[in-house]
From TrEMBL:
Identification of the protein by name: Xylose isomerase-like TIM barrel domain-containing protein
Organism listed in the record: Blautia pseudococcoides
Xylose isomerase-like TIM barrel domain sequence ranges: 25-255
Amino acid sequence: MKKSITIWALKGGISGNISVINALKEVKMAGFDGLEVSLWENGDIAYNSKLSDLHQLKKSIDNIGGEISSMSTLLLNNISLISQEKSERNKAYHICQKMLDIAHELNIPSISISPGKITNIFSYKDCILRAEEQIKGLAEYAEKKQVLLCVENVWQGLLLSPIEFANFCNSIDSGWVSSCIDIGNAAFFTPPDLWINELNRIGKVHITDIRKRRNNTLIEFVNPLEGQVNWKEVMQSIRKLKYNGYLTIETFAKHGQSQFESLKVLNMSLEKIILMGKTNEKKIDNISTSR
């Protein structure tokens, strides 16, 4: 498996106020194999990016030997594929199409999206049906662009159990649709390996970790290996599905820390996680990612 990290882990990575090339160089120096980029409102990879700019970016990526592992976006946080408002649904759909367009131009193998956010619910069953309709439409576009579309388990009110999420992903009859399993999101209420065991296929893995406090009433995201995820069980389940792609750390830049030192520690954590669950596994000592 290969190691990747989201551009959100770097300062300016959330807003787009960062050079993708500089980000690639830094994560590569820290030991990662690839970088997961983001579709921004403004920036190197944006909703309004011109084809000529993308071609130039692709040349620059190739020149430094960089690998873009995948693409995500925060633009769907407040815009839903299953909204009751047609204009909002269409906008969310176009954002997903734009991600597929850009991924095609930059030779990015996959994107991950939320299947939809529930706000003013009309019928939960109708939400599922609408999400299926939207994803099936995007599946045809993904096939046209030759980019894998991964549906992610996000906490937006839809597909919140292992069976429900797996049934949804497995029901989309397309080789261009798969699942993106976010380990920390899965661990909120259920051991994440139970989610993985229900899936027929995985197209993408987000490495996140959580810590529960105050009798599980307070849950916080922490760096990998600092939380309560049973990584040995997770990795064993991932290997059973014959997944051999990128494991991508998804975290956000923290103030008051040396960015490069933080990246190196995260890379070390990911290396330890990858070793877990192997048949010939050696003893792995816990490490602290705090500085």
